[in-house]
Amino acid sequence: MSAAGKSGACEAMLEEDPDQNYENVLAEIQSFELPIEATLRSVYDDQPNAHKKFMEKLDACIRNHDKEIEKMCNFHHQGFVDAITELLKVRTDAEKLKVQVTDTNRRFQDAGKEVIVQTEDIIRCRIQQRNITTVVEKLQLCLPVLEMYSKLKEQMSAKRYYSALKTMEQLENVFFPRVSQYRFCQLMIENLPKLREDIKEISMSDLKDFLESIRKHSDKIGETAMKQAQQQKIFSVALQKQNNVKFGKNVYINDRIPEERNEVELKRGFEEEDENEEEVLTVQDLVDFSPVYRCLHIYSVLGDEETFENYYRKQRKKQARLVLQPQSNMHETVDGYRRYFTQIVGFFVVEDHILHVTQGLVTRAYTDELWNMALSKIIAVLRAHSSYCTDPDLVLELKNLIVIFADTLQGYGFPVNRLFDLLFEIRDQYNETLLKKWAGVFRDIFEEDNYSPIPIVNEEEYKVVISKFPFQDPDLEKQSFPKKFPMSQSVPHIYIQVKEFIYASLKFSESLHRSSTEIDDMLRKSTNLLLTRTLSSCLLNLIRKPHIGLTELVQIIINTTHLEQACKYLEDFITNITNISQETVHTTRLYGLSTFKDARHAAEGEIYTKLNQKIDEFVQLADYDWTMSEPDGRASGYLMDLINFLRSIFQVFTHLPGKVAQTACMSACQHLSTSLMQMLLDSELKQISMGAVQQFNLDVIQCELFASSEPVPGFQGDTLQLAFIDLRQLLDLFMVWDWSTYLADYGQPASKYLRVNPNTALTLLEKMKDTSKKNNIFAQFRKNDRDKQKLIETVVKQLRSLVNGMSQHT
To answer: Does the keyword Transport apply (predicted)?
Structure first.
């Protein structure tokens, strides 16, 4: 009940009956422990004299309670007295009992002393027994640990480090936790890290020895691997050839190329090595890889595999850089290249072996990265050193080494396409060295040639020439012996050497993993270079040599004609050796036609030049007396010698194509006419007599007779005589002294002296005029016929006016 509720209840009771109410309040106060604030408040707050009355009631209540207490005490007093009396009686008995108990206890103590002693002995024995049992248990727990640790020491002494690490793992994981509370165990635990470090150092030392070992054995490993790849290749080639024969496929028309190639490949570089019957060693036979396996396992157990992998890869990269560094004179011999290749092959064969027998020491990505780095370096080195090679045989051996090198590494899964691309670059260089070599061969052939048709006296000699050069001439076959081939000895030699060049070029093109069509195309291109550059250059140099005369030039033209005709046989030869059918050939054609045509044109031009030079030599021998009064009555000796020379030369020209001989003859006559005209008009010649003109006319008549005798067949009518028409009309004009006709018809298409230039006529007339003044040759005429002298003056004036008119018109 709340305080407010109680206060309300008390107030209500006081209002009804004050005396009864005070009784109730006192009862309430006695019945309730807390709180009494509200009850007391109702007593003091209700009526003015309520407090006094309440106190009176309270005192009365207290007196009542005191009386009740007194009554209760009086009621229980006798019982209390009786209880005290009884207790006093019990006290005496308790003292007696205490004495008896003490005595009994003393007697028990005296009787139990011996039992206590025996009991303590028993307890002591039990404790010792328990301790002994505990010791035995602990020893049984510690002995395996000690045995394992002793085993660890033995394994360390026996260098069985991987087993030692496993023992350490067992000690740490199984045995040490059982005895970790003992001090000897803590000492062992503290000693294990040192043992692990010792194992790491020892295994790393073994790894360094291994790395040094494989560095020394890399060339032997590579040599063995390349030898195996080479033998496999030779076996495959032989098997393929056998299959080709079995199924009737075409093979090389000349089998000496593959035979020679196989011989070279079998002997090259490995002759000093093991015999064929000797067992071929493998990489495992040459190198003990156990240090790597042990070291890898040890570091794996130690949880430091990454450190080992990084160290191994770092050291191998350093070795790779050393291996890839070539010797400065590597390009001088094939042995230098072979050592370079074998070391590289040995290096990557070891890496491939490590890749396949270990897990994670090297990865495919790592080996690919290392190979790409090495490949770039190898290509750069080969490109640089091969550029120094000038011997085609050395370049060919280098190519064979590169092919074996590439095939070997390709067999181990390394990409080698870039090496074959490099071979195409080296092939161009090889062709250049071949071209230089064959340039010397061609020069020697040309130097040794006598430039005369090949004579044959019997059938055997004829067959020998035919076997060397594809010559077909039914007329020559019908002739009886002795007879002559139209070409000189250099033609079959050149043809044979071109075929040899094709063979040499084919040697390089083989084993490049290219189709027959590509090889055919490469052979044709290299042969075109031989024809258009080397042979053409040699021919042009030969043609331009000073000691080559007209006869030799004629023979060179004949030779080039037959070589040009032989080009189709060279194309068939290339098609046959590459096994390409004629129907599928869509490759480059040989440029021999244009090559030999150009050489022939150059020879023809040289013939024209040398022929003109020879004419100039004869003309320089001319010794005219330009002041003679009468001619000798016969042609000059130098001119007759020149004509006889031309007749003999043009006899040689009968073997030339008709147009060449005709052009040479026309060119010679025109040059002779021009030379004679220049002789008349020479500025150093100041005067000419009529007798000299008549003598000069006799020489021109001989030239015209030579032209009309048709020294070279094929000219129509008087075409050749027209070469001297300028001289003829000029001399006729002065011999006949027909100036009136010349001046009257000048400029007319039908003029009798149409080819006479006024300037030429004026120059010659002035030289004759000067002669008449000095020698008085025309003195009689001036006396007897002054009109004619005036006519000369008039002609000179008119000629000068014509010349001036021509210059103004120009």
So the answer is: yes
Rounded CA gap, 201 and 192, in Å?
14
Q: Which residue has the tokens 């309440």?
A: 54
739 within a domain of the structure (yes/no): yes
Task: Summarize pLDDT for 383-420 with one digit per residue, the tens.
Answer: 888 888 888 888 888 888 888 888 888 888 889 888 88
359 DSSP assignment: S
641 contacts 665 by C-beta, under 8 angstroms: no
Residues 298, 355: one domain?
yes
Q: Residue 529's domain is classified under what CATH number? A: 1.10.357.30
Residues 448 and 409 in one domain: no
Residue reference for tokens 């020209």: 653
Q: Kindly state whether residues 357 and 400 are assigned to the same domain.
A: yes
Query: Which residue range forms the structural domain that includes residue 332?
Result: 289-414
Q: In this structure, is residue 457 part of a structural domain?
A: no
Are residues 506 and 394 part of one domain?
no
Q: Using alpha carbons only, give the angle 763, 764, 769 rounded to the nearest 5 degrees.
A: 100
User: In the listed set 137, 172, 191, which residue is the last one of a domain according to the structure?
Assistant: 137
Token pair 């030692």 is found at: 164
- Report pLDDT digits (tens) over 294-305: 788 777 777 778
Three-state secondary structure of 305-347: HHHHHHHHHHHHHHHHHHHHCCCCCHHHCHHHHHHHHHHHHHH
Last residue of a domain, one of 103, 137, 171: 137
Q: Are residues 405 and 448 in the same domain?
A: no
Burial 417-444 (b: 16+ CB within 10 A, else e): eebbebbeebbebbbbbbbebbbebbee
Burial of 725 (0-12, 13-18, 19+ CB in 10 A): middle
Q: In terms of Cα–Cα distance, which of 396, 375, 376, 377 is closest to 386?
A: 396
Regions of the chain where pLDDT drops below 70: 1-19, 22, 30-48, 237, 240-241, 243-284, 581-589, 591-593, 658, 770-789, 808-810
Q: Please, is 527 exposed, middle or buried when counting C-beta atoms within 10 Å of its C-beta (0-12, 13-18, 19+)?
A: buried
Residue 484: beta bridge partners?
Answer: 455
Burial class (CB in 10 A: 0-12, 13-18, 19+), 715: middle
pTM (2 d.p.): 0.66
Task: Return the CA Rg of the chain.
Answer: 68
Q: Are 660 and 604 in contact (CB under 8 A)?
A: yes
User: Is residue 521 a contact partner of residue 575, using CB atoms and an 8 Å limit?
Assistant: no
Compute how many other C-beta atoms are within 10 angstroms of the C-beta atom of residue 349: 25
Q: Are residues 776 and 651 in the same domain?
A: yes
What's the CA dihedral at 336, 338, 342, 344 to 10 degrees?
A: 60
3-state secondary structure at position 282: coil
